[in-house]
Amino acid sequence: MRNIYILLKLLTLIFIINKISLVYTKEALAELWDVEDSDLLHYLGIENNLVAVDTALRKVLRGFRSSFGGTYLDVKNNTVYCNTVDETKVPIVKSSPLLTQHGYVDFITFKPAPANNSVSTLRSRFKGLGQLIDVFTPNNIRVYIDHKLNDVVIRHDSKDDEENEDFLEHASEFNPTLIVPNVTHPHPRCNNSSQAPLSKRVIVDRILDGDGIINVDAGLKCSVGFWARHAENEDLNYLVTAGHCYNSSVGGSQEFFHLPWGSEDPGVELGSMEFSETIEEYDFGLIDITGKNVGQSAIINNIDSENFRKLHILEDSTMSTHGAHICKSGLTSHVTCGFVRGLNTITTSANGDILEDLIYYGKDTFQISCGGDSGGPVFSYLNDLSTVSLHGISISRFFDFSESLPLNIILGAAELEPVMPHQ
């Protein structure tokens, strides 16, 4: 009997291991949409069309901000949902040439706004909460407009509620949706013991975006974001990563080395990072590689993929569509994807620092980012599974949300331009 019990336990363990192996050999985007890899191009085509529909619809809705409450797309249902407050305006919107000339109306579902909030109302309440944050400087708070919920949301960690009591009490007058997030599906690689190194030393001849880097002066591990040059002087070249990869308490010039996925030891010396205002104000930093060829590239690491191990950055763009897919590549959890949940956002850190307009994305209750992923590129797929558009870098996570600093903020603050293959 005891032998049968042991055999059953072994069979169960083998089944679990095989299931985990099966899940994590699928493309990250297939994981997000819960489809097979073979169906991805079909759904990418659907999403590209819906993004075009949503873009046109939002242009039309600019004149009806009191009548509608935001839009978001749903790839699996092949529709763009439009939260409707005043149904009498629907025929007017539907008749717009921007929507009729391309047949976009067929892909729009006008539905009653779940919370009956118009865009004007949402923006007013969001602005009010932002003013409260300036007054009370709460810790670990995420405030954003959630189009699917049709409401302003405050995500907060219950362990900080006592310290944030005054803010939460005054915030109630704006009637936000309060969410205490949780993770019921932790990412297996977030436990360091589950990521056994492939070898003691990995030989590489190219630095890929998403690869690991290590600050040898502070012992901090992060990820490569993207290769950029100064907009006014193309001889000045940098690798962009998260600002907190620089340790301000150590100070001075801090040296960074390449840390390939699956390696225990630092590889190529990349360059140094100096303290700058962008580290403190925006949480991004620049590793100076001017005059060096360290193998930098405009290619994102996706080595877990069977067929698309290198993702080529062909363009950069601003993410503006709620419900669209967005992905990141990083040292620890590699390539993972989520749905865009917030674009108008206010983020406060554990010490009360405030960042605005981060992109919130995720998959409910799933953990898609881990320590060490900070700085990695954030992107979306184009028309196939080997080319992507760059949107920014990963800088933080909050339970089942990952958070990206948009590319336009980085480029504007540091006067940079990303290096693309055609340049």
From TrEMBL:
Domain of life: Eukaryota
Keyword line: Signal
SUPFAM superfamilies for this protein: Trypsin-like serine proteases
Gene3D superfamilies: Trypsin-like serine proteases (2.40.10.10)
Protein name listed in UniProt: Peptidase S1 domain-containing protein
Keyword Glycosyltransferase: no
Gene Ontology biological-process annotations: proteolysis
Signal peptide as annotated in the record: 1-22
Any one Gene Ontology molecular-function term assigned to this protein's record: serine-type endopeptidase activity
InterPro entries on file: Peptidase_S1_PA, Peptidase_S1_PA_chymotrypsin, TRYPSIN_HIS
